[in-house]
Amino acid sequence: MKKFLLSLVAGIAVALTPAVNATETISFSYNANNDEPTYEGIQGITDYDIAILIRDTNLAGSKIKGFKVPVNFTAADVKSMSGWLSVTLRLDADGNNNPGICTQAASIADGFLSVTFDEPYEITKTGVYVGYSFSLNSTSISDPLSCTPISNTNAFYIHSANTAYAKWTNVARDLGMNVPMVVYIEGDFPALSVNCTMPAESNAALGDENFGIRLTIINNGANPVTSVGYTTTTTGDKSVSTVTEVNPPLEYYNGTATVNLALPEITSSGSYNLNVNVTTINGTTLATPFNLSGTLNVASHVVTRRPLVEEYTGLWCGWCPRGYVAMEDMSAAYGHEFVGLAYHNGDEMATV
Question: Which tens digit of pLDDT belongs to each residue from 104-116?
């Protein structure tokens, strides 16, 4: 039976499973929160090889059955398309992609390029590359690559001959993008399972909403997670029970949501022990509830440290409106969490 092992720095983590593991199929994706894709491409290029790397020791021994990835073209738009698996990313003597495990014909339906492998592949501890390749009929589709915001640096590898990517290149960090591929993996997974984490120690002031403590919920099961029920107890045996709805639901394995931790009423400063007893997932009661613990230090007030952002400008400066726009954007994004100053020189508002 597979065991899920977790490590967490400066926090507490537990794995919660209401039932015995069984053979299940999970949906693995680096687009774990199901963001809508955007589309990118290289002008004038029709041939692409795209891959992600799955390297998760928790998945070792499980088997990849297939995958799907959103596309903005149809089967009529391509000359060829395939899905493949490889231990390494490699090219043959002519510079063409050369998968080392298997290659399978792909199909397109309902906006997804899909592949089902004839033989499921067992994932090893060293990991496996899961990829797809296609050749478009023309350059009329200039942005055929689906992308979502980066969540993992192993989630976007590209090869395309006669471009800057004539060799396999990891572009996840440079582009800030991931490939929103969904990989179907069969293994010894629980139908419902989550990991929950909370800070080991938190500092807050009286009057802070929820004292700023957040509970992180991570889906480690085969089914979507829609709610988690728990009871929070503080020093003095004050407690509150709640069911936190997860919206949108965590559809994929490793999907993550962060919510405010419900707390009993705290009306005075001091140090409080926190115990969180997690009891349900999607309304299903855990056979054995799991506990999280931490410390909350409450002060009468906490000094807020705000960064000072300084701009040197003048009405005569043609480039300086960029600085003004940046200040406005920061004000919209961060409000009172920063202090902005503009120093004028050589105009009626001169301060320096």
Answer: 999 999 999 999 9
Average pLDDT over residues 165-171: 96
pTM: 0.73
Pair type for strands 201-205 and 284-299: parallel
- Check residue 213 and give its pLDDT: 87
**HEC sequence for the chain:** CCCCCCCCCCEEEEEECCCCCEEEEEEEECCCCCCCCEEECCCCCCEEEEEEEECCHHHCCCEEEEEEEECCCCHHHEEEEEEEEECCCCECCCCCECCCCEEEECEEECCEEEEEEEEEEECCCCCEEEEEEEEECCCCCCCCEEEEECCCCCCCEEECCCCCCCCCEECHHHHCEECCCEEEEEEEECCCCEEEEEECEEEEECCCHHHHCEEEEEECCCCCEEEEEEEEEECCCEEEEEEEEEEEEECCECCEEEEECCCCCCCCCEEEEEEEEEEEECCEEEEEEEEEEEEEEEECCCCCCCCEEEEEECCCCCCCHHHHHHHHHHHHHHHHHCEEEEEECCCCCECC
Q: How many CA atoms lie within 13 A of 280 on its CB side?
A: 16
Task: Report the pLDDT value the prediction gives residue 17, as an integer from 0 to 100.
Answer: 55
Task: Give CA–CA dist 76/30, Å, rounded.
Answer: 28
Q: Show the tokens assigned to 253.
A: 């394995």
Please, what sign has the CA dihedral across residues 143, 147, 150, 152? negative
pLDDT, average across residues 168-173: 94
Report the C-alpha gap between 31 and 85 in whole angstroms.
19
- What value does the mean pLDDT take over residues 293-305? 84
Angstrom CA distances, 59 to 26, 29, 204, 277, stand at: 10, 13, 38, 28
Q: Note the pLDDT tens digit of each residue in 181-237.
A: 999 999 999 888 888 999 999 888 887 766 778 999 999 889 999 999 999 999 888
The tokens of 311 are what? 């701009």
Summarize pLDDT for 144-164 with one digit per residue, the tens.
Answer: 999 999 888 999 999 999 899
